Automatic annotation (TrEMBL):
<feature type="transmembrane region" description="Helical">
    <location>
        <begin position="33"/>
        <end position="52"/>
    </location>
</feature>
<feature type="transmembrane region" description="Helical">
    <location>
        <begin position="159"/>
        <end position="177"/>
    </location>
</feature>
<feature type="transmembrane region" description="Helical">
    <location>
        <begin position="81"/>
        <end position="100"/>
    </location>
</feature>
<keyword id="KW-0472">Membrane</keyword>
<feature type="transmembrane region" description="Helical">
    <location>
        <begin position="189"/>
        <end position="210"/>
    </location>
</feature>
<dbReference type="Pfam" id="PF07947">
    <property type="entry name" value="YhhN"/>
</dbReference>
<dbReference type="GO" id="GO:0016020">
    <property type="term" value="C:membrane"/>
</dbReference>
<protein>
    <submittedName>
        <fullName>Lysoplasmalogenase</fullName>
    </submittedName>
</protein>
<keyword id="KW-0812">Transmembrane</keyword>
<feature type="transmembrane region" description="Helical">
    <location>
        <begin position="59"/>
        <end position="75"/>
    </location>
</feature>
<comment type="similarity">
    <text>Belongs to the TMEM86 family.</text>
</comment>
<keyword id="KW-1133">Transmembrane helix</keyword>
<feature type="transmembrane region" description="Helical">
    <location>
        <begin position="135"/>
        <end position="152"/>
    </location>
</feature>
<feature type="transmembrane region" description="Helical">
    <location>
        <begin position="112"/>
        <end position="129"/>
    </location>
</feature>
<dbReference type="GO" id="GO:0016787">
    <property type="term" value="F:hydrolase activity"/>
</dbReference>
<feature type="transmembrane region" description="Helical">
    <location>
        <begin position="12"/>
        <end position="27"/>
    </location>
</feature>
<dbReference type="InterPro" id="IPR012506">
    <property type="entry name" value="TMEM86B-like"/>
</dbReference>
C-alpha cells in the first residue's frame, strides 16, 4: 500500500513494522534487557491492536486475542522457554478455533492432503530436531494451527503461507535444542520468519473480514 496510506490509515501496522525492525537490529545492543523484551513484544502486540481497530465481528476479536497471546509469548520466552511455549500453545489453540469457524468451501484433495501433512509432520519434525517429547506435543498444536489455517477460507497465499512461516521459524528454534547445528542461521532467521508469518496472518484475516463490510470502514 502507498506510504501515505500506511501512515494515515494503518498506523498500527506501521508501528508493528517499526517495532519489529528495531528489535531485530537492537537486540544485541546493551540498551537494557527489559526495554528489549518490551520492544520485542510490541511487534505483534501492535498487530493485535490492528485487528481490533480494523477488523469486524467476533473473528477479529479472536484474532486480536491470538496476537496478544503471541506477543506475551514473545516476551515470556525471554524469561523461561516453558512459559513462552505455554503462551504460544494458547495462541495456537485460539487460532485453530478461528480457522475452524471459517472453513473453506469444497477444498480439493491436494489441499486436504497438505493439511494432513502439516498436522502430522510438524510434531514429528519438532521431535526429530529437539529430541524432546514436550516440544513434540507443542508441535502438535503448532501443526494443528497451520493445518487449520491452510483449510480456512482466508487467503492461502497470505494466511496459509504465514502459518507455514511460523512453523519454519519454530523448527529453526528447535534445531538449537537438539543435535542439528545450523551455526549462526537461527540468530538471523528466526525473528524475520516468525514476524513475517504473523504479519501475513493478521493482514490476511483482517482484510478478508473488512472486504465483507465495505460500507463500515473503521478509523485505524
Amino acid at each position: 500500500m502507498p506510504k501515505r496510506a500506511l501512515i494515515n490509515r494503518r498506523p498500527w501496522l506501521l508501528a508493528s513494522l517499526i517495532a519489529a525492525v528495531a528489535y531485530y537490529f537492537l537486540r544485541d545492543n546493551p540498551i537494557g534487557e527489559v526495554w528489549l523484551i518490551v520492544l520485542k513484544g510490541m511487534g505483534v502486540a501492535c498487530l493485535a491492536f490492528y485487528a481490533m481497530r480494523r477488523g469486524f465481528g467476533p473473528d477479529a476479536q479472536i484474532l486480536a486475542v491470538v496476537m496478544l497471546f503471541s506477543a506475551l509469548g514473545d516476551m515470556g520466552i525471554e524469561f523461561d522457554i516453558a512459559l513462552g511455549g505455554g503462551l504460544f500453545f494458547v495462541s495456537h489453540v485460539l487460532a485453530s478455533w478461528l480457522y475452524l469457524r471459517n472453513p473453506r468451501d469444497n477444498p480439493v484433495s491436494l489441499q486436504k492432503a497438505l493439511a494432513v501433512v502439516l498436522l502430522l509432520a510438524t510434531p514429528a519434525i519438532s521431535w526429530l530436531l529437539s529430541g524432546d517429547l514436550m516440544v513434540a506435543l507443542y508441535g502438535l498444536s503448532l501443526g494443528g494451527m497451520a493445518a487449520c489455517a491452510w483449510m480456512s477460507r482466508f487467503p492461502r497465499y497470505r494466511v496459509g503461507i504465514g502459518a507455514v512461516l511460523f512453523v519454519i521459524s519454530d523448527f529453526v528454534i528447535f534445531s538449537r535444542l537438539g543435535a542439528f547445528d545450523l551455526g549462526d542461521l537461527p540468530h538471523y532467521l528466526i525473528w524475520p520468519l516468525y514476524f513475517a508469518g504473523q504479519f501475513m496472518i493478521a493482514t490476511g484475516v483482517v482484510q478478508t473480514l473488512g472486504g465483507e463490510h465495505p460500507g463500515r470502514e473503521k478509523a485505524a
